[in-house]
């Protein structure tokens, strides 16, 4: 099957989530006999885009129209539909994200495609094409059989391991045709809510709960985050109390994260919080109560006082 991968970039660099989408696409192509083409939208450095080859893409179609520099689900979906036509692709892979989901849905409607969002594993292609996806905020899985000729899959972070190899993709100019409708809503500017790493992209997150006792006590947590190059997050009550900004609130009603390492400091582990972190590869819990529910979901647990454990961890990391 020919596979098309929708790329997301950050300052011209292919995002980690899109590297995973390419690796996922490459595995599908290798299992079904096909090649992977990636689609990059907006101005960017071709030598950076060629790095898609390291993760398994043979070719990158690059639509460098400056109107595509800002996220626009209408125009992006239009470009994706045209790229499916140009490449004859029958499988489209995107990273599950705000823009990924919006583009996938719009493109699926136009292509009458089967769509799955939140895929957690490679598809089973023996005798059909079925994909496992996460449901009920990660508490269960559903297996979906995709029967339409074109299949669109938005994958969850960590659905596949990425191993960069030697290789370079051929970057080709691609000129999709747009109508006025594609730009009927455009982003005119954007600014980050904070200076820190984005929680959805972060590989490591250090997160604090009510056990941190108050906003004035956050420095030991921030010190650990800085030592690890991590983003900071928090539980809902912490942001409700204005101890930390709302964009750090993680959980069922906040941001859902899937870092390689999630360190929970003074968070009890209520199901609503766990719903936002259960895609994490490794969870470390620091809590003074050995009965705290979070320990049941933890890979490693430290029973102790955060104000004792955090400075010691930071010191050990800086020295190590
Ligand atoms: C509809 C709904 C949606 C919700 N959505 C979310 C959500 O998205 N995200 C979310 O987080 N919550 C959410 N909640 C709230 C959730 O149920 C919990 O109340 C909340 O997660 C608890 O936050 P916490 O663990 O920080 O605080 P607490 O439950 O008060 O836990 C504090 C923990 O810190 C430990 N502790 C105290 N002092 C120390 C110390 N010195 N050292 C080490 N450990 C210490 C305690 O043992 C305790 O386990 C939701 C609730 C509802 C009803």
Walk me through the structure.
With 320 residues, the protein is an alpha/beta fold. The chain has 2 domains: 3-183, Rossmann fold (3-Layer(aba) Sandwich), CATH 3.40.50.620; 204-319, 3-Layer(aba) Sandwich (Rossmann fold). It contains 8 helices and 16 strands. Strands 7-10-6-1-4-5-11 form a 7-stranded parallel sheet, sandwiched between helices. A 5-stranded parallel sheet has the order 13-12-14-15-16. A two-stranded antiparallel ribbon has the order 2-3. Helix 2 links the parallel strand 4 (36-41) and strand 5. The termini are far apart. The mean pLDDT is 95. Bound molecules: flavin-adenine dinucleotide. The site of flavin-adenine dinucleotide has 26 residues, from helix 6, helix 7, strand 15 and helix 8.
Enumerate the distinct ligands. Answer: flavin-adenine dinucleotide
The structural domain count equals 2
Distance between termini? Answer: 47 Å
The CATH superfamily label of the largest domain reads HUPs
Gross morphology is: globular
Chain-averaged pLDDT: 95
CATH fold title of the largest domain: Rossmann fold
CATH class type of the largest domain: Alpha Beta
**Strand elements, count:** 16
Strand content: 15-25%
Uncertain runs are none
What is the architecture of the largest domain at the second tier of CATH?
3-Layer(aba) Sandwich
Helix/strand class:
alpha/beta
- Helicity level: 25-40%
Radius of gyration: 21 Å
Largest sheet: 7 strands, parallel
Count of DSSP helices?
8
**What is the N-to-C succession of helices and strands?**
EEEHEHEHEHEEEEEEHEHEHEEH
Strand order of the largest sheet: 7-10-6-1-4-5-11
């Amino acid at each position: 099957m020919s596979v098309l991968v929708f790329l997301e970039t950050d300052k011209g660099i292919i995002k980690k989530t899109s590297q995973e989408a390419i690796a996922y696409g490459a595995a599908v192509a290798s299992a079904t006999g096909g090649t992977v083409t990636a689609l990059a939208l907006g101005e960017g450095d071709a030598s950076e885009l060629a790095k898609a080859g390291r993760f398994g893409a043979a070719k990158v179609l690059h639509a460098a129209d400056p109107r595509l520099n800002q996220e626009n689900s209408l125009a992006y979906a239009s470009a994706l539909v045209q790229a499916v036509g140009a490449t004859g692709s029958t499988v489209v892979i995107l990273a599950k994200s705000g823009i990924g989901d919006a583009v996938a849905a719009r493109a699926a409607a136009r292509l009458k495609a089967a769509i799955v969002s939140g895929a957690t594993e490679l598809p089973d292609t023996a005798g059909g094409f079925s994909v496992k996806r996460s449901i009920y905020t990660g508490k269960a899985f559903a297996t979906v059989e995709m029967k339409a000729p074109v299949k669109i899959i938005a994958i969850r972070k960590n659905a596949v391991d990425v191993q960069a190899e030697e290789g370079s993709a051929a970057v080709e100019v691609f000129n999709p045709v747009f109508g006025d409708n594609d730009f009927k809503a455009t982003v005119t500017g954007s600014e980050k809510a904070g200076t820190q790493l984005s929680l959805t992209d972060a590989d490591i997150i250090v997160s604090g709960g009510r056990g941190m006792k108050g906003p004035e006590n956050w420095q030991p947590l921030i010190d650990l985050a800085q030592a690890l190059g991590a983003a900071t997050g928090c539980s809902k009550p912490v942001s409700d109390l204005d101890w930390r900004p709302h964009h750090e609130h993680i959980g069922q009603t906040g941001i859902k994260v899937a870092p390689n390492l999630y360190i929970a400091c003074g968070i009890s582990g209520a199901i609503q919080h766990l719903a936002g972190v259960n895609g994490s590869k490794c969870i470390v819990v620091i809590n003074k109560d050995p009965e705290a529910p979070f320990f049941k979901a933890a890979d490693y647990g430290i029973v102790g006082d955060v104000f004792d454990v955090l400075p010691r961890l930071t010191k050990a990391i800086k020295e190590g």
